């Protein structure tokens, strides 16, 4: 069931709040911060995985789907969290990692012991010859996507780290196991599910990528994808009228997403797509920097809004998550206009058609980490790519600069609650370094400001909860050729909302498509009280007008 008035807050549990002095965030730490989230006004928390994992990929390498890693706490702690969250009107969304398991998972270990049942849970192929993998596909974390296992003289597929073996979804036992895991967590009071890279589970064929790319055309949005999702829906969360589901869709298309998240498709409630977060990739390469192409950003977001709307399908709206650099550093200005640009970026997303997601720390403008030494990075993708780029001939300085812009660790540093040691996250050395700027940029400091980013987010959240036009209004792009401003309308019967966002540090003039007499100001990050048809927008200004 899709609830259009919902706002999801993402917690990266390892970095949110440590309660037992081990430098790791934990469930009891989250419980101690629930009042803060209630004040913010969100109604769902999505947790990145807290279950047993060797942590090669911070929990996305699952060893046991049904138990918490003791560093996060116990099942009793979790039950208390569910109860305490419920009291505050907050539901829980869990992350289900079903494209792969850790190679330490019991299934893989039994496969290695030669148990055919479990060997068939994974994808094995013969090499092309001695030392030559089955095809030229590349892992998303660098290197071949295949790993040789001598005892079988075969390779297993791992689209991610070598310790993350891909599951074989053509096997009905695998599909049943996944449905059982969802049902297990449903019985524990979990109503929401985020499915990790779920559009990669149906592989079409295992041929070489003719373009010598990573092979994604053969495993993205594959031929049985919709059938598998419908099956999972029927066998698990679809039985719960309260469910809220989102699929993480890697390199996907609108054509597929209108089905994944179509109102009557009985697959998922909404999708994360990532095209708008590649506009600063040079030639679509993540590790090649370029300034964000603003016109491309506008075009992509508009295309997705219209494409999904046309087929009555639903987007998840977001700039940030644990895999992306911080939006204020990336699309805003994290120095002089940090506050203004953080609000503008929030407003731009929250007034669109879809369900907004807020990533921890975004609500008071946390920035990129800007680590200066490779030893400070923990993320497997970052440490792997560091070696690859050095081997390609880039200098150490160049590579470190690239990581400062692109590394996933930019988003994973400890939550900055206040100006005490490690930003109040932990009183011992955290698992990943705290950012240098926590003494100025932290939740407590922000909230001392009557005009805080937090207060702005509270307001946006209340508007979505209470205004049908924000929940359901039709999206219509305006000022499509304007090179500095992203603007749109939302329309519901006679009501109209106009959102105008200046993405640049220079003032810029816009002429709105209609006279806005009779409109009131719903949101402004500059205390603007009224507007004319021609407006000169200040640096990173957002202005939202509304007429009943
Ligand atoms: C997407 C997750 O968001 C990311 O953190 C993870 O590394 C990959 N999927 C692999 O599970």
Task: Give a written overview of the molecule.
The chain is of the alpha/beta class and 548 residues long. The protein is 28% helix and 19% strand. The chain has helices at residues 27-32, 34-40, 75-87, 106-112, 116-119, 172-187, 225-235, 254-260, 294-310, 327-330, 338-350, 380-391, 396-406, 443-448, 453-466, 468-472, and strands spanning 8-11, 44-47, 51-52, 64-68, 91-96, 100-102, 124-125, 146-149, 154-157, 164-166, 192-195, 244-248, 270-272, 281-282, 285-289, 316-317, 355-359, 474-478, 485-492, 495-502, 508-511, 520-524, 534-537, 542-547. The strands form seven sheets. The protein has an eight-stranded parallel sheet. Strands 18-19-20-24-22 form a five-stranded antiparallel sheet. A three-stranded antiparallel sheet has the order 7-9-8, with no helix packed on it. The longest helix has 17 residues, at 294-310. The model has no long low-confidence stretch (mean pLDDT 97). 1-deoxynojirimycin is lined by residues 57, 60, 97, 160, 196-197, 248, 322-323.
SSE topology sketch:
Blueprint: E1 8-11, H1 27-32, H2 34-40, E2 44-47, E3 51-52, E4 64-68, H3 75-87, E5 91-96, E6 100-102, H4 106-112, H5 116-119, E7 124-125, E8 146-149, E9 154-157, E10 164-166, H6 172-187, E11 192-195, H7 225-235, E12 244-248, H8 254-260, E13 270-272, E14 281-282, E15 285-289, H9 294-310, E16 316-317, H10 327-330, H11 338-350, E17 355-359, H12 380-391, H13 396-406, H14 443-448, H15 453-466, H16 468-472, E18 474-478, E19 485-492, E20 495-502, E21 508-511, E22 520-524, E23 534-537, E24 542-547
Parallel strand pairs: 1-2, 1-17, 2-5, 5-11, 11-12, 12-13, 16-17
Antiparallel strand pairs: 3-4, 6-10, 7-9, 8-9, 14-15, 18-19, 19-20, 20-24, 21-23, 22-24
The structure holds 1-deoxynojirimycin.
């Amino acid at each position: 069931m899709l609830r259009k008035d919902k706002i999801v807050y993402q917690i990266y549990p390892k970095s949110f709040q440590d309660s037992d002095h081990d430098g790791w965030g934990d469930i009891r730490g989250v419980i101690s911060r629930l009042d803060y989230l209630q004040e913010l006004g969100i109604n769902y928390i999505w947790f990145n995985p807290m279950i047993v994992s060797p942590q090669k990929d911070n929990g996305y390498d699952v060893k046991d789907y049904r138990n918490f890693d003791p560093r996060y706490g116990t099942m009793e702690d979790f039950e208390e969290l569910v109860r305490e969250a419920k009291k505050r009107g907050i539901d829980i969304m869990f992350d289900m990692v079903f494209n792969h398991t850790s190679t330490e998972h019991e299934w893989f270990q039994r496969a290695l012991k030669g148990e055919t049942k479990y060997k068939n849970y994974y994808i094995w192929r013969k090499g092309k010859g001695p030392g030559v993998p089955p095809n030229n596909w590349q892992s998303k974390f660098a290197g071949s996507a295949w790993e040789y296992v001598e005892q079988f003289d075969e390779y297993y597929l791992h689209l991610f780290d070598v310790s993350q073996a891909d599951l074989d979804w053509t096997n009905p036992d695998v599909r049943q196991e996944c449905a059982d895991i969802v049902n297990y967590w449903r019985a524990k009071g979990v109503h929401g599910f985020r499915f990790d890279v779920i559009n990669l589970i149906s592989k079409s064929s295992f041929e070489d990528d003719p373009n010598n790319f990573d092979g994604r055309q053969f495993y993205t949005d594959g031929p049985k994808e919709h059938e598998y999702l419908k099956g999972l829906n029927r066998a698990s969360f679809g039985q719960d009228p309260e469910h809220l589901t989102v699929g993480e869709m890697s390199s996907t298309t609108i054509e597929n997403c209108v089905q994944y998240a179509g109102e009557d498709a009985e697959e998922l409630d909404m999708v994360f797509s990532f095209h708008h977060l590649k506009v600063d990739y040079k030639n679509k390469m993540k590790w090649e920097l370029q300034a964000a192409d603003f016109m491309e950003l506008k075009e992509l977001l508009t295309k997705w809004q219209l494409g999904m709307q046309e087929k009555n399908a639903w987007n998840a709206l977001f700039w940030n998550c644990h895999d992306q650099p911080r939006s204020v550093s990336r699309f805003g200005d994290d120095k002089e206009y940090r506050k203004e640009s953080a609000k503008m970026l929030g407003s731009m997303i929250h007034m669109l058609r879809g369900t907004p997601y807020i990533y921890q720390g975004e609500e008071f403008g946390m920035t990129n980490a800007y680590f200066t030494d490779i030893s400070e990075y923990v993320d497997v993708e970052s440490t792997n790519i560091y070696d690859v780029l050095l081997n390609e001939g880039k200098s150490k300085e160049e590579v470190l600069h690239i990581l400062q812009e692109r590394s996933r660790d930019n988003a994973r540093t400890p939550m900055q609650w206040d100006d005490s040691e490690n930003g109040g996250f932990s009183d011992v050395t955290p698992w990943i370094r705290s950012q240098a700027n926590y003494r100025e940029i932290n939740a407590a400091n922000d909230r001392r400001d009557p005009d805080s980013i937090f207060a702005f987010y509270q307001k946006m959240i209340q508007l979505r909860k209470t205004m049908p036009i924000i929940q359901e209004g039709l999206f219509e792009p305006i000022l499509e050729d304007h090179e500095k401003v992203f603007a749109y309308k939302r329309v519901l019967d006679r009501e109209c909302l106009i959102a105008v966002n200046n993405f640049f540090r220079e003032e810029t003039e816009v002429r709105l498509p209609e006279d806005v007499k009779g409109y009131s100001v719903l949101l402004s990050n500059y205390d603007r009280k009224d507007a004319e048809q021609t407006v000169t927008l200040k640096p990173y200004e957002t202005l939202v007008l509304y007429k009943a």
